[in-house]
Amino acid sequence: DLSRGDRRHQALQLRRQRKEAVLAEKRSLGSRDGPPHLVVLVPLHSRAAAHDTLHLLQSQDAAVVPVAEGKAGDFALLCPRLKQRWRFVTAQAGDLHAVLDLAKVADSLLFVLDPTDGWDSAGDYCLSCLFAQGLPSYALAVPGGNDLPPKKRIDARKKLAKAIEKRFPEAKLFPLNTEQESSLLLRHLATQKQRHLAFRDRRAHLLAYAAEFVPGQESDLVGTLKVSGFVRGQTLSVNSLVHIVGHGDFQMSQVDAPPDPLSLNPRVVKGQKKSEHMEIQDDSANGTDEMEQDTKVLMKADPKKQESLQSEVVPDPMEGEQTWPTEEELQEAEASLKTNRRVVKVPKGTSKYQAAWIVDDGEEGSEKDDDDDYDDEDDDMMEEAVSQEGESSEEEGEPAEEDCETMTIPESLRDDQYDEKVEEDEQMLERYKQERMDEMFPDEVDTPRDVPARVRFQKYRGLKSFRTSPWDPKENLPRDYARIFQFQDFARTRKNLFRQIEKEETEGASVGWYVTVHVCNVPVSVMESFKEGKPLVLFSLLPHEQKMSVLNFLVHRHPSNCEPVRAKEELIFHCGFRRFRASPLFSQHTSADKHKLERFLRPDAAVVVTVYAPITFPPASVLLFKQRGNGKLVNAEIVIKRLVLSGHPFKIFTRTAVVRYMFFNREDVMWFKPVELRTKWGRRGHIKEPLGTHGHMKCHFDGQLKSQDTVLLNLYKRIFPKWTYDPHVPEPVPWVRSESALPVQEVEMD
């Protein structure tokens, strides 16, 4: 109802508000009231001069405050003249976990390049992982290069500028050889627009500035961890739970407010004059007693309001017991059976479940018109077959290879080590063969001859249409499903929670405060990891995020990875702010409520990954790593495993054919008679009757078969993931570019 002038005025006001919000964010970051500007140095080449970069940054007209003793790459810069303060942290070479964890909390990343090559293979691999996880604001620094002749220096700069166009289209290179160039770099870091990562903007987080471990009374292995740092993102409440990246979820007992060690108005040590670089009193080393006296207790946890650490539901074994029905319920059941009863002619020995799948002649005629619609789906799912001689020859060749392996006898220690590598290569070759066979013959299995097919496949069922046939999602659930939490409406809960974060004010430590968090019942291994130089990162959890559920990720395989990855194989997950290990299931990404199981991670299509893991509200990025792509969270309700039994037409008539080699006894043919048949060339049909006692059967199809066609029978069974969630990931991912690592790019979650 607004006039044209009012609408223009309203748009102008909204534009001005957004501009003021961006300016306020720039001014608060690194200022007196905001947290220090956290800059993480990431060398992308083995020859990148990270030490020279640090030396030039420390040569500014600012106070240099060391953060970690004996670690030159972790320091702070205080510049009262510019009213700015920075904290610089150098990522450890060879530890990809540390780089990814620091990138989760960094305000800016400073990539240090080589003046001639830019980045090597390890640097390219690191960039792939950082882009997949979500890249904050960044800058490109190129130290060195003065030793090159002027002509080669210009050529190298052009070559480097051309190389970064693919990765960083609008980035600017900052040469870093003088103090003036380093001051320009600092000014760029302070004034550039900050890029937001959704998973951290809605949660309070901090990078540990200092930490202290107080052993508990019962055991020295578990105690209280006092972590000091600057609050970022959101207000930190003591009653919420906190997640230590790589170690798990914990409760907080209290939050203290010690003096700010990086104040822009620092205390000068008495008896010393101001030199060219100001010397700041190290409160962490020399003034511990004074800090303890100045420390104020901000808040203590309220047991009534504190979030519980319960992550699983304790199932009641008597909850599923059913009482004896009343007479009214029995009468209602009999009445419903009479109204829904259908008379169908069935063979002798047919169960009620099998009889429900038998189609009447009238229904069969009405459904012939819809066959063409299903044929298009089946053509995509079926592939061409190879001859039976090729399969038999491969089966005959396998024992010969095994015999050759048993004849090798190592003669020395070197031979033993070499043979171990050969065994690994043979295992990898076998996995390559399995992946290739799964591509050529998807889901096809051989019918066993020593076990009846009705016994071997008794847990499977037939479906008339994989897309439209009903499947009750609560049917035959495993016992692990009694341990997880389920949302009545996940999207609505997420929407209300995010709206509450934006509108309501939380009581606690505000953004920019320097606090000490007392984390309860923390193992001593967390402190040992921090002493080794690994980053200690804390994230506060939103309500329900400590509870276990079934998470589904939509992932793309990275093009650089070519090693087969089998389902239920243990992988390392970087999911938003979490890092954990689990054995996932892979399934196809479709719009239906059922998703067919994939035995391997496909390189050419998006795959849904299903695991048991704590709830994480999307959006969040996900990366998968193997022990030694783009994604989003989806709602995958049911994961179905498909088995395909194949047979060959023996005699072909107009619309009928005699099929053999699918079954090997008459009883199996009668058992699977209600299941619909398909062929690789798109025909559909059903079993009419068995012939003889050796598994031959007469089948009727909707058209004449070709002699080279293959008859298929699809069986389905629901699959559930394994409960293998482990929040502890002690083994670091190797920095060297490896074909076994799977950087998978950004993700949404359900």
UniProtKB/TrEMBL annotation:
Basic and acidic residues bias spans: 293-307
Molecular functions (GO terms) = GTP binding; GTPase activity; U3 snoRNA binding
Q: Does the keyword Metal-binding apply?
A: no
GO biological process assignments: endonucleolytic cleavage of tricistronic rRNA transcript (SSU-rRNA, 5.8S rRNA, LSU-rRNA); maturation of SSU-rRNA from tricistronic rRNA transcript (SSU-rRNA, 5.8S rRNA, LSU-rRNA)
* Subcellular localization: Nucleus, Nucleolus
UniProt keyword terms in alphabetical order: Nucleus, Ribosome biogenesis
Q: Locate the Bms1-type G domain: which residues?
A: 35-195
| GO cellular component entries | nucleolus; preribosome, small subunit precursor
Biased segments, Acidic residues type: 360-383, 391-405
Q: Does the keyword Nucleus apply?
A: yes
Q: Name one Pfam family in it.
A: RIBIOP_C
Q: Where is this region: Disordered?
A: 269-336, 355-405
> What's the family?
Belongs to the TRAFAC class translation factor GTPase superfamily. Bms1-like GTPase family. TSR1 subfamily.
Q: Which PANTHER family match?
A: PRE-RRNA-PROCESSING PROTEIN TSR1 HOMOLOG (PTHR12858:SF1), RIBOSOME BIOGENESIS PROTEIN (PTHR12858)
User: What does this chain do?
Assistant: Required during maturation of the 40S ribosomal subunit in the nucleolus.
Name of the protein in question: Pre-rRNA-processing protein TSR1 homolog
